[in-house]
Amino acid sequence: MSCSNKNNHMSLAFQLSHPATTLRTTSSSSSSTSLSMSAALIVQNKGGGHGELGFQLAKNLQSNPKITSITILQDDACNDEQEPFKSYATDIPDVKIVKANLSSSEDDTIESLQSILGQDASFDYIWDNCSKSPTGPAKALCDAAKHAWNTKLYTYVSSAGIYQPDESTTFPMNELTTPIKSTAGQHLFDTYAKDTLDLPYVSFRPQYIYGPNSNKHDYIDWFLHRLTRNLPLPIPGDGNQKVSLTNSRDVASILASVLNDEQAAIDQCYFNCGTDRLLTYNDVVHLCADAANIPQDEVHIEYYDADMFGKATFPFRMTDFYVAPDAVKEILKWDGPVCDLAKDLKDFYHDSFLARGGHTMKLPLLVKDWEIVVGHRTSFEIGSVYDKYIPIEFDCSDVKELLID
Fold first, then answer.
1. Nearest to 273 by CA among 172, 182, 170
2. What's the angle, vertex CA 359, arms to CA 355 and CA 364, rounded to 5?
3. Confidence band of 375 (pLDDT split at 50, 70, 90)
């Protein structure tokens, strides 16, 4: 159910899983009694690029001796029939799942949040993979961490998309020197939690994420959709721009590394979050081809002028835009990635792409691809590889060659 009384209720329709019991929020006062001196709370969004992180983080923390209990506060807008949510019960059965409407804009309170999680609930460690700005449930969560639970460490999952590099920026982008978007919701959240509340606070900035239980596949699918149909791959520039594609398991291990040295994490505060195995766009194309057993001589890359055609449908930036985990390795002693994209892609191709029917599914209109590929031609050809994907009829009977003196 949904509760609308701002003063006494959090507007959160919620449900406990393990055991599965529907609950009703009630007006009550908060309690700071701790159930465990090492209780962890993971706040998880409804899905998307970060949708798998809470699941993988819970699996990681289960083997950490500092953590004795784990609760996931899950946005109830998630689709329980999709990964990773459908694997909660089987893969992390000892983790308590509390579902709630975390997208509310209501002025929620510590009391209403406490009534959701339990009157005696208190959390020493929080990983927030949901909040987008310091409003609604996100603000209540910060307030509870500061004033009710005396949380030891609040770890926030921001985004490398917050960066706004300029002409002086060197790559990989540095956490402390690269300009950021001052109006970004994540920056406003950082400011509220760190500066206004003075929480013991750490903020991670991940980039492009993939994983075995992801529900967002856009980045890799873009390449495989074209490769498996023998279509050109329009790549901006020369394809040598670097990208950081990180397995969600490695992202989770980075997020958990704050437990290696909590004070050092707080002192640094901001960390890039990604693999150190950087690849170029050309590399990604050829790795995807290998995964799909497509001969390299059958791969057709169409390099194009990004100033002329823009980003089009390409899943990454047109220019260099990447991070590296130098700070987290040096300061938090993160061991580095255990996953490798080349190996992971073979599993992804069979277990995800083919299993979802990616090689046969109907594609969106490839108009931008057609514009780029045909736009680079020096002669006009009737008929193209795009004909069956762009069912547009052209009358070419009066087409004449354009002569330029």
1. 172
2. 115
3. confident
pLDDT of residue 362: 87
The set of residues, in sequence order, having a beta carbon less than 8 Å from that of 308 and lying 6+ positions away, is: 375
- The answer to whether 290 and 342 have CB atoms below 8 angstroms apart is yes
The structure tokens 């990773």 sit at 84
CA–CA gap between residue 69 and residue 41 (Å, rounded): 9
Whole-angstrom distance between the N-terminal and C-terminal Cα of the chain? 73
Cα–Cα distance, 316 to 298 (Å, whole number): 23
d(CA 282, CA 300): 11
pLDDT of residue 400: 63
8 Å CB contact between 64 and 259: yes
Distance (Å) of CA 392 to CA 376, 389, 395: 20, 9, 10
- The SS3 assignment for 66 reads coil
pTM: 0.86
3-class DSSP state of 348 = helix
State both tokens at 260: 């290696």
Q: Quick one: which of 93, 173, 204, 186 has its CA closest to 135? A: 186
pLDDT tens-digit profile of 275-289? Answer: 999 999 999 999 999
Query: What's the CA gap between 121 and 115, in Å, rounded?
Result: 9
389 dihedral zone (left: phi>0; alpha: psi -120 to 50; beta): alpha
